[in-house]
Amino acid sequence: MTATTTTGPQRAPRRRSDRAARLASYGTLMGLLLLLVLFTVLDEKGIFLTAGNLTNILEQVAVLAMVASVQTVVMVVGDFDLSVGALASLVGVVVAQLLAGGMPVVPAIALGLLAGLVAGAINGFLVAYLGLSAFIATLAAMTSFTGLALLLSQGSTIFGLPGRFVAIGQGRLGPVPMPVVIAIALAVVVWFVLSRTVLGRQYYAVGGNAEASRLSGVNTRAVRFTAFLISGVGAALAGIVLTARLASAHPTAGDPLMLSSIAAVFLGVTLSRVGQPSIGGTAVGIGIVGVLGNGLNLLQVNSYVQQVVTGVIIVLAVSLSQIVRGRR
After folding, report:
1. CA distance 261 to 268
2. Has this prediction a pTM greater than 0.90?
3. 173 by DSSP, 3-state: which?
4. How far, CA to CA in Å, does 316 sit from each of 31, 103, 307, 311?
5. Rounded distance, CA 14 to CA 19, Å?
6. pLDDT tens-digit series, residues 49-70
7. For residues 56-75, b (16+ Cβ closer than 10 Å) or e, as one string?
8. Is 246 in contact with 160 (CB distance < 8 Å)?
9. Residue 327: count of CB within 10 angstroms of its CB
C-alpha cells in the first residue's frame, strides 16, 4: 500500500486562501485606522484628532453602542431586531410623560425599562414560540411602537424634564460623559454573558446550528426568547439615555439607531475568525460609524450623502462577511 503525500503545489492554494481570509478578517480594523488617517489629513483646521473631538465622538456613539451591544446578542442567535430604534423612541416618550406628570426619576426609569422588557418578550414570543420570522415580527413591532410613540406624544416633542434626569445624559463621571460610562458598562455585561456563561455558549450554538443544538438538549426557543428580552431592555435603556441627553423626547428620535446598529454588528462580524458577531467586533464597527459621521460633519458633507455612505458600508460589510464565512 502506498502512502499519499501532499505536495507543495497542492498546499499552496490552501495557504493563499488562508492568508486572504486572515487579511479579510482584519479589513474592518484596517478600515477604522484608514478613516482616522484620512480625516486627520483632510481636516485642515486640525480639529479631528484632538482630545475634545475624540471625546465628542464617543459621546455621539454612546447611545448607538448600547443598541448595538444588545443587537449583537440577537444576531449571535441568528436573528435580528428591527424594532430597537422605535422601541427606544417609545420608551423615551413614556418616561418623559411620566416625569412631566410628576413621577420621581427612579420609578419612571424603572417603568421605562419594564416597558422594554415587555416589548422584548413580545418579540421573543412571536419569533421563538410562534415561529414567525424575525424580520416580519420585529418589522411589525417597529411599526406598532412608532405608532404608539406618536399617539402618546401627539406627534410633538416633550420638554420640561427634571435636571436630575437630564444629568444622566449630559453629566460626567470625572472627564468621561455619563452616556459613555453607561454604554461601556452595558457592553461589559453583554461581553461577560456571551463569553463567560453557559447561556452565551448556547447563544453561539443556536446561531451556528439551531437543529443540532436542539438535538443536543438546548432549549432553543428559550434561548432565542431571552436574546430578545436583552434586546428590549437594552433598547429601552438607550431610549432613556437619549432622552436625557437631548433633554426632550421625540416620537422618532431613536429611529436611526436600528440601521446603524445592524451596520455596526455586520462590520464587526468580519473580525471573527468564524464570521460570528462579537462585542469586540461590534465596538470596532461602532468606531467606524462614529468616526465616519464625525469626519463627514467636520468636512461639511451633506447629511443625505452620509446616509448613502452608510448604506454602501452595510452592503460592503455584509459582502465581506460572506467572503470570510465562505473561506472557512
Report:
1. 11
2. no
3. strand
4. 12, 46, 14, 9
5. 9
6. 899 999 999 999 999 999 999 9
7. ebbbbbbbbbbbbbbbbbbb
8. no
9. 14
